[in-house]
Amino acid sequence: MLRKVLSGVVALTLVLGIVGMALAGEPGFITPPGSWDETYDVVVVGGGFAGLSAAYFAKKAGADAVLIEKMPFVGGNSIINGGVYASYTSKLKLAEKLGQPDSPEKHIEDTVVGGDFMGDPALIENLVYGSPIILDLLLDNGLQVRDMISRPGGHYGYRTHTTINQSGSDVVLTQKKMVEEAGVKVLLNTKMTYIYREKPMEGRVLGIRVETKEGERNILAKKGVILATGGFANNPDMVRVHVPWITDEVGCTNHPGATGEGLVMAKQIGANSLHECYIQLYPFADPNTGILDAAAVVPFNGPSFGIVYVDVQGKRYVDEGQRRDVCSMAALNSGGFPTFSIFSDEMVELFSTREDIEKYIKQDRCFKADSLEQLVKEINARTYKGQKVNMPADNLIATIKQHNGYIDQGADPDFGKKIDKGIAKKIVAGPYYAIPQWPSVHHTMGGVKITPRAEVEDLWGNVIPGFFAAGEVTGGVHGTNRLGSNAIPDCAVHGMIAGTMAATGKPPVLK
Ligand code: ADP
Hints:
It is a single chain. By secondary structure, the protein is of the alpha/beta class. The protein folds into two domains: about 40-280 and about 445-505, FAD/NAD(P)-binding domain, CATH 3.50.50; about 285-440, Alpha-Beta Complex (Flavocytochrome C3, Chain A, domain 1). Helix content is about 35%, strand content about 20%. The protein has helices spanning about 1-25, 50-60, 95, 105-115, 120-140, 170-180, 235-240, 260-270, 300, 325-330, 350, 355-360, 370-380, 395-410, 485-505, and strands at about 40-45, 65-70, 85, 160, 185, 190-200, 200-210, 215-225, 250, 275, 280-285, 310, 340-345, 365-370, 430-445, 445-450, 455, 465-470, 475. Helix 2 (about 50-60) links the parallel strand 1 (about 40-45) and strand 2. Helix 1 (about 1-25) crosses helix 8, helix 2 (about 50-60) runs parallel beside helix 6 (about 170-180) and helix 5 (about 120-140) crosses helix 15 (about 485-505). The longest helix is centred in the first third of the chain and has 23 residues, at about 1-25. About 55% of the residues are buried. Mean pLDDT is about 95; it is low at about 1-25. It binds adenosine-5'-diphosphate.
């Protein structure tokens, strides 16, 4: 029996190794070149929230920094993020204005609990304490956020800020401007294909090899390489190695570059990794495309204001205030496809804007009607991936009536939702709205293991000299499940730590 188990483990290790090498494109150890084509102090790989932040802070700390990006533009997944940013406070004091002041301790607690106690508390503290520092810096550099603050699933404090266009591109464009103004050199269409280390599994990280249209180049990093290459959600083979039940039928919200080779290359030179089997589905993507468009942010921002999620039978299937993993699994187990967010006109400006909702209606991503009966007719008139639904209008009317009663009572006996009295609204007058929604692969919580100073650790728990990482390529920040709107602060704060560490050897002061 033991022999069978051991041979199974060996076989699995071999398979993972072969898959990893095939994904990285180059097996084994490559001896560092005798001479280098370019030299910088700090080489940042990946131009998303994390890499842009790392490059900016490395440059500001006095280092000659270069940003390497394989795509023709910076932004990565960050640019198609929903533009939501969790921070317990900011210079705008939005939570305070709502009469719901938050605290760092509450944000830490929610993040620890939301990841089933599997996140590293020191990394979570970085995220939480660094978050308002970065948000205020972005605001000072022109980022605009909406005059609202929300409490999405898994958060029990009002801390989620939404950018003006409800898109991560608002943050990326601000970061891009900051990086350009700071004088960071940005190399686009430049793909890292290997990370050079002095010896196999030993010594300093020296630099990287890149592939460009003109050929290969070797880049020396005198002070450090910062890995900020994002996650692997758009690499079906890598996803399936870790979570075999995620098949082709499950959509993906990610950009084409989220293929995870940076993580594989880091492992090739001895980096440790963790939590790769924790892969998040975004519960509210467009059911037809799997994309997280702007309309898909409405169900995310709505729960504390009284939005109701129903299945194809017009019945609630989950506590709308729950975490993404809970909402996703409840939808997948709801017995039909897709599910819907239901809300009324009175609620629109609490978590969206009238202009946006009109835009989603024109795009047929949101349906509008003067009565709930008519709304059901609109829902039943569409097809979702070619399939019809047959929602009974009586069910939806009964569900909304019952939910209104729960708002009055301040308690939800069916699913135990936390109802914030005075903030949660009943659905009593039209027009009424519905947005269809369905889970789609979104975020890979696992990745390279880092210290709280963003240094990459090796398999034996030692720091790999000259090697730092930040953002979705790292593991252990969020545990089993990332709370929505914690991604930007995670990436940007750990980017700040990695950039400052690489440039100066000292972390920034966060509290
Ligand atoms: P994060 O949110 O952690 O910053 P993103 O996915 O937004 O991650 O950004 C990661 C960026 O890294 C993407 O723009 C992606 O194209 C880039 N990237 C990934 N792999 C490589 C690579 N091998 N070489 C250069 N850039 C890469």
